[in-house]
């Protein structure tokens, strides 16, 4: 029962999917639910894939892809996209740690955030549209899972730096246990089995490079991470996974 409540807590935290009332709220469970983020990612990707499949029966693949992207954004309430936009604004307009954190707390979206979001969504759409239709659904499922594995790994690699208690992400970003990290890693790696091709594991190389670079960048400028950095890690690694599949298709005739 405890693990079921942890799973529903993770589902409640990063999506708008209703959970049973008996789950309730517990800051302790919120702090330990990180292990299930990749599993929730599978659900988000699967629902996006379902929307793509249904829409593709009526519309063209590009329209179906856009509708699936809208579906996943609605499911999460643009939770991660908002973090990515805040990081673009903060690191783009800030010149020291205090200013970067101050800008990221601002609910308004600036020029850096707007431009960053447009480019990110365009890249995501173009990458998915370039994949064979048969790979769009498995790609959505795996990308939404493995990208959240990398976001969880950042909670373990870096220190949380915002000192106030107002951040809505703080309860899930402290005291990440090594067991939670390994569970998240195993879930993310298992999701890759859906491709039934060992070569898909080569996508981990660019994903690990992106993780290293982003964490080094966050650490250099603010000395660790905040919740917006996790959203950025999720969004960037999701797109890199799509691009890596395309690269495998070109270099190794993956599809």
Automatic annotation (TrEMBL):
<feature type="transmembrane region" description="Helical">
    <location>
        <begin position="178"/>
        <end position="195"/>
    </location>
</feature>
<keyword id="KW-0460">Magnesium</keyword>
<comment type="pathway">
    <text>Cofactor biosynthesis; adenosylcobalamin biosynthesis; adenosylcobalamin from cob(II)yrinate a,c-diamide: step 7/7.</text>
</comment>
<feature type="transmembrane region" description="Helical">
    <location>
        <begin position="36"/>
        <end position="55"/>
    </location>
</feature>
<dbReference type="GO" id="GO:0051073">
    <property type="term" value="F:adenosylcobinamide-GDP ribazoletransferase activity"/>
</dbReference>
<keyword id="KW-1133">Transmembrane helix</keyword>
<dbReference type="Pfam" id="PF02654">
    <property type="entry name" value="CobS"/>
</dbReference>
<comment type="function">
    <text>Joins adenosylcobinamide-GDP and alpha-ribazole to generate adenosylcobalamin (Ado-cobalamin). Also synthesizes adenosylcobalamin 5'-phosphate from adenosylcobinamide-GDP and alpha-ribazole 5'-phosphate.</text>
</comment>
<dbReference type="InterPro" id="IPR003805">
    <property type="entry name" value="CobS"/>
</dbReference>
<comment type="similarity">
    <text>Belongs to the CobS family.</text>
</comment>
<dbReference type="GO" id="GO:0009236">
    <property type="term" value="P:cobalamin biosynthetic process"/>
</dbReference>
<keyword id="KW-0169">Cobalamin biosynthesis</keyword>
<keyword id="KW-1003">Cell membrane</keyword>
<protein>
    <recommendedName>
        <fullName>Adenosylcobinamide-GDP ribazoletransferase</fullName>
        <ecNumber>2.7.8.26</ecNumber>
    </recommendedName>
</protein>
<feature type="transmembrane region" description="Helical">
    <location>
        <begin position="61"/>
        <end position="79"/>
    </location>
</feature>
<keyword id="KW-0812">Transmembrane</keyword>
<dbReference type="GO" id="GO:0008818">
    <property type="term" value="F:cobalamin 5'-phosphate synthase activity"/>
</dbReference>
<feature type="transmembrane region" description="Helical">
    <location>
        <begin position="109"/>
        <end position="131"/>
    </location>
</feature>
<keyword id="KW-0808">Transferase</keyword>
<keyword id="KW-0472">Membrane</keyword>
<dbReference type="GO" id="GO:0005886">
    <property type="term" value="C:plasma membrane"/>
</dbReference>
């Amino acid at each position: 029962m405890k693990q079921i409540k942890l799973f529903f807590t993770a589902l409640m935290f990063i999506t708008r999917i209703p959970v049973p009332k008996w789950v309730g709220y517990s800051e302790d469970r919120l702090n330990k639910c990180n292990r299930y983020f990749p599993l929730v990612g599978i659900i988000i990707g699967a629902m996006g894939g379902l929307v793509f499949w249904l829409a593709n029966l009526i519309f063209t693949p590009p329209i179906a892809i856009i509708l699936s992207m809208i579906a996943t954004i609605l499911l999460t309430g643009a939770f991660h996209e908002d973090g990515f936009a805040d990081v673009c604004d903060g690191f783009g307009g800030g010149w020291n740690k205090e200013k970067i954190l101050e800008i990221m707390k601002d609910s308004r979206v600036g020029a850096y955030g707007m431009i960053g979001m447009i480019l990110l969504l365009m890249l995501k759409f173009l990458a998915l549209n370039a994949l064979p239709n048969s790979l769009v659904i498995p790609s959505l499922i795996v990308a939404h899972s493995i990208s959240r594995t990398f976001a969880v790994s950042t909670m373990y690699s870096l220190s949380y730096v915002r000192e106030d208690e107002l951040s809505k992400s703080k309860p899930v970003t402290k005291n990440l246990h090594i067991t939670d990290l390994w569970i998240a890693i195993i879930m993310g790696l298992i999701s890759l089995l859906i491709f039934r091709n060992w070569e898909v594991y080569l996508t981990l190389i660019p994903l690990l490079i992106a993780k290293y670079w982003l964490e080094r960048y966050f650490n250099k400028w603010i000395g660790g991470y905040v919740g917006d950095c996790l959203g950025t890690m999720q969004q960037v690694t999701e797109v890199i996974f799509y691009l890596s599949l395309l690269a495998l298709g070109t270099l190794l005739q993956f599809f």
